[in-house]
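Hi F.,

I've been meaning to write this up properly since the lab meeting, where we talked about keeping a consistent format for the predictions we share between groups. The idea is simple: the sequence comes first, exactly as it goes in, then the structure tokens exactly as they come out, then a line or two of notes. No screenshots and no reformatting. I'm using this chain as the first example so we have something concrete to point to.
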Amino acid sequence: MKYLDEYRDADAAHKYAQEIARITTRPWSLMEVCGGQTHAIVKFGIDELLPKQITLIHGPGCPVCVTAVELIDKALEIAARPEVIFCSFGDMLRVPGSTTDLLSVKARGGDVRMIYSPLDAVKLAEQNPAKEIVFFGVGFETTAPTTAMAVYQAARKGLKNFSLLVSHVLVPPAIAAVLSAPDCRVQAFLAAGHVCAVMGWEEYIPIAAKYQVPIVVTGFEPLDILQGVLMCIQQLESGRAEVENQYSRAVCREGNRPAQQLIHEVFQVVPRKWRGIGEIAQSGLGLRDAYAAFDAERRFGVAGLRVEESTECLSGLVLQGKLKPHECLAFGTRCTPEHPLGATMVSSEGACAAYYRYRREPNTAAA
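Output, unedited:
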């Protein structure tokens, strides 16, 4: 397929791998930020092409996976109300809260709908004035502009029956949190190309300088990832710690300014809890006071809901790169895509789902 096969060329992939092996003189640990990159790495066996000195660590790169369990429970409580049409992207419907998931609420009679754009929820609000329409806004900076546009449009249309349950998270603070951990072993990052397509890569410069780690903005195809790894290793071997852009066909330094302006218009930066990790300062987006009337947490009185995470699921360790999915005792046995213990087994970008689908290795935790 044109524009795709060229980034999956096996000969070119082996040449990249050979060059990486040639210049690697010591062990290095790299973290890919995005779950889409994780799936490509596992699906195409990219990590198996690399020399044994290089370890790829899977990071907290799935916004579905890092949505806090208490926010899922807030969604469940709102969605169960008879006056509500609850709208969400499909990958959130099976993410478990503390007791159940949104699909189960739907099965019990809740009006839960899968939509493909936040603007579809705005249309529903126009078409159903007697119903409360709630959209579950989940994602990194990539999807934040469309969520912001939905709120912006609802305000301009004077819609009183539209609200937003916000779970947007920001990538740079998460990278800084990983690097600040006392047991951090990450020496370089493959940054998420789609996030940088919106936000650019200038905000990574102070992180690279402060922690002295290379950060390479990277795409999602096999050759993208291999070239990103090569660029990281070149920096590490030469003692550099800079931000570089492998994904130049989609990302520029300044990003998408109109999208950034829309995000800034509707949202403000707030602390955010990350599932399995805890609260990270200044790592989320919340509605500004001018748009507070569209805040579903306030509208439905669930802002104060607090829930403790289950200790049975070890997805928090997976999200922090401290555990490989197949090293969990529950992997592939008590935890499967059909009966998941955590979001990393449900999401299309979850690391556990990637290992279950593409690399069902024997469970090593019991060894």
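Notes:
The radius of gyration is 21 Å.
DSSP finds 16 helices and eleven strands in the chain.

If this format works for you, I'll send the rest the same way.

G.
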